[in-house]
Amino acid sequence: MKVPIVLKIGAVAVLATGFYTYVGQLVPQKEVQPPQETKMSATMTTADLVNTGKSIVEGKGSCLTCHTIGKTSGPFRFPDLAGVGSRATTRIPGMNDIQYFADTLYHPNDFIVPGFSPGMPTINKPPIGLTDDEIRAVIAYLQSLGGTPSVTMQTVIPYAAGAAAPPAGAASAQTAAAAAPAPATGAAPAAAGAVTAPAAATTGAPRAADALVSQYACANCHAGGKPAAPFAKIAGKGEGQLIAGLAAHPATPGGFESAITLAEARSLAKYLASQKGGGA
Q1: Is residue 120 a contact partner of residue 79, using CB atoms and an 8 Å limit?
Q2: Of 85, 90, 140, 188, whose CB count within 10 A is highest?
Q3: pLDDT single digits (tens) 241-258
Q4: Which pLDDT belongs to residue 146?
Q5: Is 102 in contact with 139 (CB distance < 8 Å)?
Q6: Which CATH number is 86's domain given?
Q7: pLDDT confidence of residue 182
Q8: Domain shared by 51 and 158, yes or no
Q9: The predicted structure's pLDDT at residue 268
Q10: Residue-by-residue DSSP string for 16-37
Q11: How far, in Å, CA of 231 to CA of 222, rounded?
């Protein structure tokens, strides 16, 4: 008896479907769910915030995609978070741990730990998009990593809705001196008769580096190497050293080290690093 070709094709199709279905069931299945909605309430205690913050760091916040906790040897993609609760209290002069963590989360490029590159996303914006209360919980958890959690639901978090930014002094170039290598010594006081520029406000758009060099008459002391080192000589230093040097600069005309913002200090450091061929 001859089997019709249609039946043959049907049998092959059934066998193939059954085989691939069986093989598919042998592969471990993993169901991916959207991030679980964080439940926040005004009655949460500090301990509740720490626990919630931990789950956010491990889940919705995606923090452990780049950070590690307790990794003792490199390579490190981003700084390890073990002990960060203690480091945060002294990382930037003028900022306490809550202010530092808030600045790190809302404005991650304001301060870059020496040895690492920018790259952390702004946590309260897409694609992560944590709420102010969720960030409050994350800060509580970060405090617990080597420090003492103190955040409550009533704690005012800088940059959160209705809250102010950290102290203006902490946003200046002086803040970058923490955790950066010490600047080279030997810089002399400003020359007599150097132009004194008015102190600039620490708000508004950052001023260009060449404009700052002109405004504060940097060439009066640095262009020829007297009384301070020429730009070409200090250009080989790393950005962290240059920023630290700006923050600790002695007898600066116009007191610019306390008047420029951290963004302007970073811009100046890049400008100085480019001056390998001579003065400004």
Answers
A1: no
A2: 140
A3: 676 666 666 545 555 656
A4: 96
A5: yes
A6: 1.10.760.10
A7: 38
A8: yes
A9: 77
A10: HHHHHHHHHHHSPP----PPPP
A11: 6
Distance CA 149, CA 48 (A): 11
Q: Is residue 218 part of a domain?
A: yes
In tens, the pLDDT along 61-111 reads 999 999 999 999 888 889 999 999 999 999 888 889 999 999 999 998 888
CB 177 within 8 A of CB 244: yes
Closest CA to 241 of 184, 159, 175: 184
Asked if 89 and 151 sit in the same domain, the reply is yes
Higher confidence at residue 4 or residue 221? 4
From CA 206, how far away is CA 98, in angstroms rounded? 25
Q: Are 280 and 198 part of one and the same domain?
A: yes
Say yes or no: 150 and 252 in one domain: no
Domain count for the chain: 2
Residue 261 is assigned to a structural domain of this protein: yes
174 pLDDT higher than 50:
no
Examine the domain organization and report whether 71 and 144 are in the same domain: yes
53 in Cβ contact with 140 (< 8 Å): yes
Boundaries of domain holding 130: 46-168
CA 36 to chain centre: 25
Residue 12 in domain: no
